[in-house]
Structures are given as C-alpha cells and as structure tokens.
Write a structure and sequence with these properties.
Elements: E1 22-24, E2 29-32, H1 40-43, E3 52-62, E4 71-76, E5 79-83, H2 86-90, H3 93-101, E6 105-114, E7 119-125, H4 133-137, E8 187-192, E9 197-204, E10 207-210, E11 222-223, H5 225-231, E12 234-243, E13 258-263, E14 266-272, E15 283-285, H6 289-292, E16 300-301, H7 303-309, E17 311-324
Parallel strand pairs: 1-6
Antiparallel strand pairs: 2-7, 3-4, 3-6, 4-5, 6-7, 8-9, 8-12, 9-10, 10-11, 12-17, 13-14, 13-17, 14-15, 15-16
Amino acid sequence: MRIALGRPVEALPINEPPEVSFTMLPPSSTIQVTKEDEHFDVLRQWVPAGGYGVLFVTLHERIASGRAKPHIEVRVNDERVGQLTPSMSQRFFPMIKHLADRGLVSGCWGDITGSAVAAEVRIDGIKANEASTEFLDGPPLTIPPLIAECVNPDDYDITPMRPHLTPLPLCEPQVRPSPPEPPDGSLVRFDKSRGRYNYVAVRRGNRWETTATSDWGSINELMLWDGLAQRVRSFEIATKWAPIDRRSDLRVRQHRAVIRFSIGGKYLAAINVCDNSSIEGEWYTTITDDAEVNLPFGDHANWSDIVRYGEHIQVVDEWQQLGSCR
C-alpha cells in the first residue's frame, strides 16, 4: 500500500474560514481572478515566504455603478482582492443569489502565488450549472476553524474532542492456525492477491524454496513454514507425478502446470504462469539468487531451457487440498 500525500505547503490554508454563516462550494475547475494588481496592498500580507499558499476566499455579488458591469467580487477575510470577469461572473450569479437568500456566504478554496511586488489569485469552485439540489438546499458545507500552533502538544485544548477520543477496547491479535507442515521434499502450490500471482514451494530441510523472484514482497525465496502459512490462505500439495514427453506434452502447456526436475543433482520445481498454451510457456523456478550463479538459468525460464538442461522431468498429475488458513 502506498499513500500519496500532497505538498506540505498545501496541507493547511493560510487564513481562517469565514466567521459568518457560509457554505463551501465543491471543487470543480480552477479560475483566474482578475484585477489583483489593484489590491496588492491587501494581498501582500497573504503571500507566503515560499511564494505559494492555499486560501479560504468568499464570493460576493457586486452591482457596479455607471458603465461597469455586475461581477463577482473575491474577498479574503472580507477584504476585496479582485474579481471574476463579467462573463465568468454570470455563471456564478444564480447560485450566489440562491445561497445568499438562505443567509449563506459562498466560500471556496483559492490559492495565491506571489512575491514582494506582485501576486495572483485563483479560485476553485463549481458554477451554477454544476450545483446539485443537495448542495443548493442541503446543510451548509463548512470547515472548522484552525487551531493555533503550540510548541508543546500538551498545551492543545482537546476538551471539545473528548467524546470522540474514547479508547477502543483492546483485542487479542488473531493468529490463523497453520496446517501441519508437510514432510521434507514435499511440493505445494498456492496463490496470492485472489489468484493474480501463483507460486510453488518445495521443502528442503527446515526451509521452503519458493518461486518468488526476490525478498521484497510477502513471499520470499526462502521461508519457514510458519511464516509461509501465515501469508497464504490455502495450499494444494502434489500427490502424484508423471513423466513427460519432452517433444510434445500438452500437460505442461496448461496454466499453473507444475513440474519437478534436477540439474546437476539439485532438486528443483517450476510453475507455468502463461495462460495462452504457448510452447515455451512462462516458467518460474525455485532457483534462488545464490544458486543461480552455478546454474544455466535462474528464477525465470522458458520450456526450451528446462528440457535442454533439466533431468528426470515430471509433471504433477494430481493435487490434494492441504488445508485452509482462513
């Protein structure tokens, strides 16, 4: 699992949410604010040291006098910082008016990019034609006020959160029972990620050699039985083997076909994960990285490699369910 986090500078807004009754417009597409240059005396105080930050802004209908056209005024902390173009404002007017009739100021996310001499502001919010009935007539969407940063975390007043901080009861960790370990030399087949990845493993003494290609996942090249059984839901164990026809044997072309063979006296196994009945197949072997340096191929092989170098090749002809680890 990977968690994708945004840039730290975007984690918290620069200013507090409005103190009046408001609702936040859901995000939609970014719109450039105009005439910020006329209000740089206000914007200067909001330009972060790094030159970029996230803001709460509010949108207000402005009926201009004279020949000026009506427009949407953009404010930060109730101070004008710019406006939307008249044509863009027309796309917000019906929604702003509707929310205002409900006693709600329209808030939305904005951002500021600037320096010591100039700044630009953008907003991100839906337009009137994008607003749903649930948003227009439903409960306001609000953002809680920010908590002032404290040097000592113990200084935070968490009294309002106390009802939500009741510790959960302790639960004993549940360990799935493992099926009995098969005897030395046994071969098992299993899958991971709902059948997306298929493996076999062979017991050699107290360790299991698997067809994993590395040691970075949940299945490693060498594993102990308890560790393997805790990571796998169920196993099939090979109970019957049959010799193969090296020239043409349809059994080895099957998806998830499993064979055993030897090279230089070393006992090995492989599984075919190819699902298109190819002659070569796509075989993953129990050859570990350490053993690979002394063998003609490694953890991945074609059928021609196996029949060229392998001896005593046999295919699994029968499987038996070993047990479930659910």
